[in-house]
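PROTOCOL LOG
Step 1. Enter all chains and additional molecules of the complex.
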Amino acid sequence: MDAQRQPAFVAQERDASDALLEQVNQAIQSALPLRIQGANSKVFLGREVAGEVLDTRIHSGVVTYDPTELVITARAGTPLSVLNAALEDAGQMLPCEPPSYGHGDAGASGAGDGTVGGMVAAGLSGPRRPWSGSVRDFVLGTRVITGLGKHLRFGGEVMKNVAGYDLSRLMAGSFGCLGLITEVSLKVLPKPRLCTSIALEMDSATALARLAQWGQEPLPISAASHDGRVLRLRLEGGEGSVAAAHDRLGGESIDPAYWRALNEHRLEFFTDGRPLWRLSLPVSTAALDLPGDQLIDWAGAQRWLKSDASGSEIRRIVSAAGGHATCFSHGVEDSPFQPLATPLLRYHRQLKAQLDPHGVFNPGRMYAEI
Amino acid sequence: MNILYDERVDGVLPVIDKQLLLHALQTRLPDLDILHREEELRPYECDGLSAYRTTPMLVVLPQRIEQVQTLLKVCHERGVPVVARGAGTGLSGGALPLEKGVLLVMARFNKILHIDPAGRYARVQPGVRNLAISQAAAPYDLYYAPDPSSQIACSIGGNVAENAGGVHCLKYGLTVHNLLKVDILTVEGEHMVLGSDALDSPGFDLLALFTGSEGMLGVITEVTVKLLPKPQVARVLLAAFDSVEKAGRAVGDIIAEGIIPGGLEMMDNLAIRAAEDFIHAGYPVDAEAILLCELDGVEADVHADCDRVRAVLENAGATEIRQAKDEAERVRFWAGRKNAFPAVGRLSPDYYCMDGTIPRRELPGVLKGISALSEEYGLRVANVFHAGDGNMHPLILFDANQPGELDRAEALGGKILELCVKVGGSITGEHGVGREKINQMCAQFNSDELMLFHAVKAAFDPAGTLNPGKNIPTLHRCAEFGAMHVHMGKLPFPELERF
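Step 2. Run joint prediction.
Step 3. Record the structure below.
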């Protein structure tokens, strides 16, 4: 990944929403687009945006966190490592395990680490996603600066809230194209009592067939990855269920650091020079014959592909299987995100025009038309 | 302030010649069942919110998706409002018809199209009942998790439109967390797929946006839901408390212990007594509050968690703790809770069910506030509470035959919802805004936020003919509502003209 190196940045708790609002309002008045960034850790993903940089990291800090309410609220510029440290102290976690793609371990200052706002805007989730849900599933509320230059609040800090349209979850994965996220409330959960990781040698066809079978049983699996040779599983839950599952499945215990390395793209697989593709597939998809090397995650629902094949060839095969492909290497594809069906694209444009009428928020980051 | 559609504040609707429209539909769709006589239309004049009734202009009962498509095209060409309806069990009037609109009944689309055990999903038509999905998946030891209490009757299309919840949301999520894909028809009758068979799809998350959008953005024609493996075992504990505050604190203590129960419900004394009289569940009728805590999962974990929860409940001052000794007793414990609404209905000729959510820590204060309001308005309130996720269902007891009581019940309900908003909660956790809470939306959102909601609507339905008047109030309605509820001497929406 060729993320631009950023100068060291020390996270400070600070409410800078007025400054952000002013910058957005200036952009609206002068009709000059903004390129929204946090730590710039996911700058490789999506299309280039020409615009004035809006750096959310000036607006940082955990606003409220009451562990027994299972909700944390943080400003967009808060480093993920700061959020995770607060949760860790209370024995809780963000179950969707968002990757940071920061450069190296950020340490207490959170320098160079992905931000909370970037995590929600990119909507990427880690190995636990098929069992726990995605980033958007844990978003309870957001504060957003809109395309009309207003700082508004949607959703809230409660688990259930169906008043009005669900704009908070719409923001997740929208890559900043619909508004500037300034604050997010997230549902969090207690960490599992026990966590064990195991490895089992088998080929990918066998692994995928077993995973489809195990998925229909109440097993405490919380991560499943296959590298072509070895199936790695993470078992999480109470002492009894984890021990019983380990006994039943067998296998060697492995270092749980594997999951972090997989999530952050630090395995050797990712060092290969060919373009990286993310394939999102139905859970029970069999092994896919594609040019290049594959690494299976999410029990088969997410597969990483290193390949020189053309985007159209990859997308033809993946679409036929009911999935879609995203190019994770910068500058390879003009449309890194899979193109949308015609009516769907039209409604994307209409939504963009309604929510960002002056076209100031990350124009073209997802698709040229929005 | 009346909640029936009021063109003066909710927007003028086009004048439609019923006979001309009927003729056009009969010509274009000769095999479509259309109801148009007064006596045929009557059964459709309300949904589960039966205090409010409007006779629709026409009712259509399509059986094929192409009929829905053509119907939407004809209505779009003529600017005719369309209100979609599933099983009609909604509690917020989301499917309340319009005198000047067509009621589109989707109930005949009741086929389960495909159950895929390996893919752990079910593809169903929108009129399939919620419980029917779990029944069809049962042979594979799979089930569909969201279980609103109307699950034997409510349809999955309506569940998606309202983002329905149930008693297991804290652990298993709402409808939005349990969907893969929804097929919709736009207001122009164009087909779109939102979501996919994979766990995500390219573009904006329109699946999340449409879930809970109350039929305002499109008509749902097919739903693909996720199925989960059935938990190996489920155990339920019943704990009695001599104060509601203690019971509320016990809920926080259970979560602080690192346990997420499958279900965690609270009932107050009035609700306990009503349920016990009706169901004979064996509830302690002298308790001020009871908690029902269900733990589900793998046997060994559930056993260990039951011991942990029992210790927490003892420390929290429970006066009595019982564990259901067998499946029959577990079902009986739940039957009392699941029948709490009809049970309370036996205490009073009518009841009005609220649906506010609050941060759990605010529970004692909000319950005190409700009890003060109950006295002020002279109406009894029974409290049933999804304690785990902060979703309250205060039930206001009243008699619609007593002049003024419905108005008083409505006003009391409005005050309770405003109290929820004041402590950082929401006016609706799972029932939806519909028409019922249209005025309280003005308390939860400011005019800029409401304008943004209207902008979202305009992206999908610029003429506003899909379910007009539901979910999002006009600023005019809020101005008028605000004028009646001046807060601290300050009028909301001061920029608007009052008339």
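Step 4. Note key features.
The CA atoms of residues 131 and 152 of chain B lie 5 Å apart.
The mean pLDDT of chain B is 94.
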